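Hi everyone, sorry if this is the wrong subforum. Our group has a chain we'd like a structural model of before ordering constructs, and none of us has done structure prediction before. Sequence below.
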Amino acid sequence: MVLCAMTNLTCKHTLRGHRGTVFALSLSTDGKTLVTASKDAKLRVWEVASGKLLRTIEGSKSPLLSVALSPDGKIAVTGNTTNSVQFWDVEAGKEGAKYTGGTGHHGTVNGIAYAHDGSFALSVADDRKVMKWDPVKAKQRTVMNKHEAPVLCVAISPDNKRCVSAGSDGTARIWNLDSGEQLQVIKAGPESVMAVAWSADGKAIATAGNEEEIRLWNPDTGAAVKAIATGVQAVNAIAFSPDSKWIAAGGTDSNLFLWEIENPPPPPAQSDPAKGDQRVQFKGHANSIHSIAWSKDGKAVVTGSKDETARVWV
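Answer:
Right subforum, don't worry. Here is the predicted structure as tokens:
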């Protein structure tokens, strides 16, 4: 993986077909398969290398706000605006196992994450809960409930032992996934935290939202590490590079941005005008970006937008 090449990304494929915002997307571990989830209540499955649409999966009764794909690419888990966590057989193109009615969320399901070893999935929702699921049996295992407002996003540690959830209460909360115990409460800001990511080396958590900053935190202590000024009014999505040295982000200004974490450029307002905009940015989307994924080999970034497309950048 040569990340200096990432500063020269081009849009290889523009994936069209959804009839609504692409709120969420997820890549398989091998980087060959992409699933996108949209306001149109449909899942679409794509071949990343060719940009070919493999299948469209229908069955959600409301817009899909979140999706996570199993590491082997066989199961997709989604959350929608009518409180449902659904499990899909990606290869068959249909809904798989169902969980028992009445045991799920009571509010819009805003975020989904899949364990790196495929052993469980997490969901977060407006009902302030973080839920752990057995994705094969589609059964709920653990409920974590300490947030004071809707939970908007969730990420899992590389060793699958902890997760971080964040949301409208301005906090990011770290949990022990075996016991359900809350380990840390990070005061991430007065505004909603709309995006969260855990670095692949396990050493950093990133949060972002309406404050024009990406903030980095120590996951063991909850201490603030660094703030990166973005110049973007609202950051909706973030992702670490596989080597944990870069972070990708997208938001309301429709551009994909990359920052080198150890040496980010100065805030746009303080940049040298003679040098232009020193942020590494890529233009192409016609509306705000809502979802980002970085391939495990570091060679591609995928974005989803309100312009009803997803883009593959290489």
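For your construct planning: Residues 3-313 form a domain with the Methylamine Dehydrogenase; Chain H fold (CATH 2.130.10.10). The radius of gyration is 18 Å.
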